[in-house]
Write a structure and sequence with these properties.
CATH topology of the largest domain: Rossmann fold
Strand order of the largest sheet: 2-1-10-9-11-12-13-14
Shape: globular
CATH superfamily of the largest domain: ANL, N-terminal domain
């Protein structure tokens, strides 16, 4: 069976049971398997009545919702290639991707965004608001049209950290294989807790469904015995988590680091015995992770487990069994924090071109700072400059209408990820940086900036983004972007820089830094839609500041 046939079969089996929910202002709207199938069938009728057929492209531009899921399934059931787009991107960026993918129709949730697109692109395809897609009477549910393994099901645009985004084509075989892997790993996770209970998994989701890993979680949830709760307001995540009471949910490092800092700051502000127990337990757990335990460590951990950690776990999620994290490497300190309070963090590594995943932590063997071993059937190895290359049934067939880029990416039968990594004797991987981000000093030394940037950012919560400079220069420097609160000073930063430099070889030391006048964001074009640094754009925006750093230090 294809992945889509398995999802339809699962929804029919759960025809009277809730399978997907969305939260709005504290209220829950849910759909049973039968209701979701009815919505899918209504959307299929709409699409075919507008002349869309197998192989056509259709853009889906909307925030997460039950209707998003229904329309996505409807398009794939008709063999229409879905082009999911992120609703927070600027209309100009969205139009660029749509001009590249040439959809025959745009399905949009927001009338204002639709009007902006029509104004900027008057000769573009017809736009249908989601309200019009789901107005007709639905026919009885029908199975999806049969697809071949090689049939494209989606074109997902990469975030474009340098250069313009490319459309990644994923086919039926890619997704069918990957859902088998994700379901197997989640079965393994839940078996540790429910002992074969028939109760459905409770899953919470807040990341945009237009991202590959996010979309993969949606399809995984719909293909297994689960109830998926979709967030509708990122400013109310804490309240929505209390409503969803999830067993697990997918995260990006930024969110987990924010939760960790909020808890640590609250405990430090409380002070007294509680703050001392927490601090001592933190140090004890770090030593335990390094196999350097001391005599009193067991006592501090016991006290924390009795007096503090259960309440902290409950504040995050009363039923939480694990957190899943991807999109970027998670700081080991943050992963250890959650492990310390009894919530394992399973890291995943992958790219859109690898159908979202290459590695995923084994729930029974999680090592902080590593992203686990390759999932079954996937091969990974290191090439020149420690670049990770991958092959297997998860690898995409190519970029949309970019044959030269496809040939380059798949040179030698392996997908060249552009990521740098290392692997230990057990086969567990660690991601160390990006090949394209390598800084080459005029001395010839090559430096991956990410570890140093992460080290600074970890000690400077007021500065969520640090960007190293130094290509063809004599030394490294750093641009430091404050958060919206500002208040960052040179005197606050210098001791942190000194501490990071201590013990490093001279060529890896940071000799100058500059606080930039604005935070980095998606809106000002300095971050991609999933929060990654646009290094070229940052260097161009702050070219004057960079030059001043080097002139001042050389003077």
């Amino acid at each position: 069976m294809t992945f889509l046939e398995k999802i339809f079969d699962r929804l029919q089996q759960a025809s009277s049971a809730p399978v997907i929910r969305e939260v709005h202002d504290g209220k829950v709207n849910s759909a049973t398997g039968g209701e979701l199938l009815a919505m899918v069938e209504g959307a299929r009728s709409f699409l075919t009545s507008r002349g869309l057929k197998k192989g056509d492209r259709c853009a889906l531009l909307a925030p997460n919702s039950i209707r998003w899921a229904a329309l996505d399934l409807a398009m794939m059931a008709e063999g229409i290639i879905v082009v999911p787009l992120y609703a927070r991107q600027s209309p100009a960026e969205l139009i660029g991707m749509m001009k590249d993918s040439t959809p025959l129709r745009i399905c949009c949730a927001d009338a204002v965004i639709a009007a902006q697109i029509e104004k900027l692109w008057p000769v573009g395809p017809e736009i249908s608001l989601l309200d019009s897609v789901f107005t007709g009477d639905a026919a009885p549910p029908a199975p999806p049209n049969r697809s071949a393994d090689s049939d494209a099901v989606t074109i997902i645009y990469t975030s474009g950290t340098s250069g313009e985004p490319k459309g990644v084509v994923l086919n039926s075989a890619n997704v069918t294989y990957m859902l088998g892997c994700t379901n197997a790993r989640l079965d393994q996770l839940m078996a540790q807790f429910n002992g074969g209970s028939p109760e459905p998994d409770r899953i919470f989701h807040y990341l945009p469904l237009s991202f590959a890993a996010s979309w993969l979680l949606l399809l995984t949830a719909l293909s297994r015995n689960s109830v998926l709760t979709l967030s509708s307001d990122l400013s109310k995540l804490a309240d929505e988590l209390k409503i969803a009471t999830p067993d697990y949910f997918l995260n990006v490092p930024t969110f987990l680091e924010r939760v960790r800092r909020r808890i640590e700051e609250a405990i430090q502000q409380r002070g007294g015995f509680a703050a001392r127990v927490f601090s001592q337990a933190q140090r004890a757990h770090l030593r335990l992770d390094k196999n350097e335990s001391r005599f009193p460590d067991g006592l501090w951990l016991w006290l924390a487990n009795r007096l503090m950690f259960p309440a902290i776990r409950k504040s995050i999620g009363v039923n939480l069994k694990a957190l899943i994290c991807g999109s970027a490497p998670l700081a080991p300190q943050t992963q250890l924090f959650f492990m310390r309070i009894g919530i394992p963090v399973l890291q995943a590594y992958g790219l859109t071109e690898t159908t979202g995943i290459c590695t995923l932590d084994d729930p029974k063997h999680v090592v902080s700072g590593r992203v686990g071993t390759p999932i079954p059937g996937i091969e990974m190895m290191l090439a020149e400059d420690d670049e990770i290359i991958v092959r297997g049934p998860n690898i995409f067939p190519g970029y949309w209408q970019r044959p030269a880029d496809t040939v380059k990416a798949l040179e030698g039968g392996w997908f060249h990820t552009g990521d740098q990594g290392e692997v230990d004797a057990s086969g567990s991987w660690r991601i160390t940086g990006r090949v394209k981000n390598l800084i080459i000093l005029n001395s010839g030394h090559k430096i991956a900036p990410e570890p140093l940037e992460d080290a600074l950012a970890q000690e400077l919560p007021e500065a969520p983004h640090v960007v190293l400079q130094g290509n063809q220069r004599g030394f490294l420097s750093a641009l430091i972007a404050p958060n919206s609160e500002n208040g960052l000073t040179d005197s606050r930063i210098q001791p942190v820089v000194d501490a990071v430099n201590a013990g490093l070889p001279h060529y890896k030391q940071i000799h100058a830094f500059q606080i930039v006048p604005e935070p980095f964001s998606v809106e000002n074009g300095l971050l991609t839609v999933n929060g990654k640094l646009k290094r070229d754009a940052i260097a161009a925006r702050f070219a004057v500041e960079i030059e001043q750093m080097y002139q001042k230090k050389s003077a």
